[in-house]
Amino acid sequence: MSQSTESTTESNPFTKPGFLIAAALVVALIAATVVIFLLPKGQGNAQPAPAPTETSSTAAASPSASAGAGKSVCGLPASAETALGTAPATKWELVGTMAAPTDPKIGPGKTDGQGVRSCFAHTPTGALYAAVNLWALGIDPSKEQAIADQLAAEGPGRDAGMKAPQTAAPATSVKIQIAGFNVSYTANQAVVELAFKADNGALASVRTTLLWQDGDWKGVVADNGAPLEEPRQVRDLSGFIPWSGA
């Protein structure tokens, strides 16, 4: 190998071990995203999630967005809070391989016979808990139809998810856990950005948009059933509120 080729290889960030480790995490997150949002293989990249606003295209496109106000389907308390600036004191439970938050006043208030966890408080913390539990559940492909049925916001994307064939289990040994979060919140919509950390130390993040529908938080998907945003690699937890259960 020539000196110039060696120099090029050494300076290429895509060949460095740090990048390859982080790429493995992104692959694991995308695999989880596929399961959660039932994205058929080969479909295009998703668009970034919009900032939460009652007049956003996401809310306007969702038939129950304007009718989302209402009491919790399982009687959990609501609040007028619109921000979550610190990590909540949290009890964690393993859902498959991921630690997920639980609290009798925040949720999940319901767990069905398939282990699908639903009913979260109409608060910023409730939206955060709902997003994490959705991700934890989504790693298990056997739950994908139940997730689409119970946890996806009404619209064409939910319908597509209900009709999609069950996907195979993600072929990866990388385990991921929550490492931090940010929540942008309005009364009936929340955008929860979660930072994930793999057991090899790599970091990535993804935003999940939620709508308050039928007394619970529901995950918003594109019309084809794809997520609104795919995971992205992050260098560190700068800009996130650190929070983890494992």
Could you walk me through the main structural features you see in this protein, from its secondary elements to its overall organization?
There is one protein chain. The strands form three sheets. Strands 5, 6, 7, 8, 9 and 10 form a six-stranded antiparallel sheet that branches. A two-stranded antiparallel sheet has the order 1-2. A two-stranded antiparallel sheet has the order 3-4. It contains six helices and ten strands, in the order αααββββαααββββββ. Mean pLDDT is 79; it is low at 4-9 and 39-67. Helix 2 packs across helix 4 and helix 5 (144-151) runs antiparallel to helix 6 (156-163). 27% of the residues lie in helices and 22% in strands. It has helices spanning 3-11, 17-37, 57-61, 124-138, 144-151, 156-163; strands spanning 91-95, 98-102, 110-111, 117-118, 176-185, 189-198, 203-213, 216-219, 232-233, 241-242.
TL;DR of this structure?
The chain is of the alpha+beta class. It is built from six helices and ten strands.
DSSP helix fraction: 25-40%
- What's the total count of β strands? 10
Order of helices and strands: HHHEEEEHHHEEEEEE
The number of helical elements comes to 6
Outline the biggest β-sheet.
Answer: 6 strands, antiparallel
What proportion strand? 15-25%
Radius of gyration: 18 Å
What is the count of distinct domains? 1
Low-confidence stretches: 4-9, 39-67
Terminal-residue CA separation: 45 Å
What is the global morphology? globular
Structural class: alpha+beta
* Mean pLDDT over the full residue set: 79
